[in-house]
Amino acid sequence: MIEGQGDGIAFGAYGPESEAWRINREATALLAAAPRALLLQLAHPLVAEGVEQHSRFREDPRARLEGTLHSYMRLVYGTRAEARAELRRLNRLHERIRGDVRDPVAATLGRERYSARDADLALWVHATLIDSTLAAYEAWIEPLPEERAARFYDETRPIGLAFGIPNDLLPTDLGHFRAYFDGMIGPGGPIRVTPTARDLAGTILHPPLGRMLLPPGRGGNGMPARTRPVAAAGLDLVPSFLYDWLLWPGLLLLPPAVREGYGIRDGAAGRLVTAWLRTSFRTWRAVVPEPLRWMPQAVRAFDRVRVADRGAERR
Hints:
Elements: H1 8-11, H2 19-24, H3 27-42, H4 45-54, H5 61-77, H6 80-95, E1 98-100, H7 104-107, E2 113-115, H8 119-140, H9 146-162, H10 174-185, H11 195-205, H12 209-213, H13 228-236, H14 248-251, H15 256-261, H16 268-287, H17 290-293, H18 296-314
Antiparallel strand pairs: 1-2
């Protein structure tokens, strides 16, 4: 993480001059990156086993999406203390995620057991977030010069090391990262969409509307607790084809082999909807003030730095 930039408390792990802050702040790009990253994670047979056996993914599909996104935002935009606390929380959580491999396809990888603390699996999860963020930014925001992409990757390495990925396993630079990623999804790599992954992916590809908008066991939404299950069940009856096309732009950014494994078709309708959504967003982005299109964590972080800068000027 970037050291020696201004006020360490205000800047957190990175700071406003970092690529991490610049690239991750655009809400639309990250919302396209999140489902892509989740599907890539599940495409590793051993990650799919862990999600299947240790999460409430089907009952509360929004929880993993929100959890992944919010955790990532805390690491990027939180203060140093918040980022370190989040790393400790995640490492404690991952200690409990382990078990026997049950899926026959996953068993062909030669492992009888899996663990979320396995360095190879941690590297893959880490890599899906990096690759998806870069892919979504390029597709939705602007072309990213090679030097900026390389700086962004360099800034992600300390997070990987903090997750317990050994330095000699973590790709040293963007070129080595791309070679690693291509090898993972290539013909000889371990990435393959198992029946377990396809089953889990249904809640990403065709999310049940009620469980997404009114997840079980959560408050808020201004709705009495007694009526939430009834309202959620009613919303779950809404056919997913009426709204799941909003996910197509992110899904079509998946590598072709992974996309085919999930049965996601790259048809004319998908390309047309993607082009329309992208054009609409770029038109909207040109006229909407920056804070309204940024992730709320990014807005708070930039505000935090501005307050610290004003305080420094008064001293």
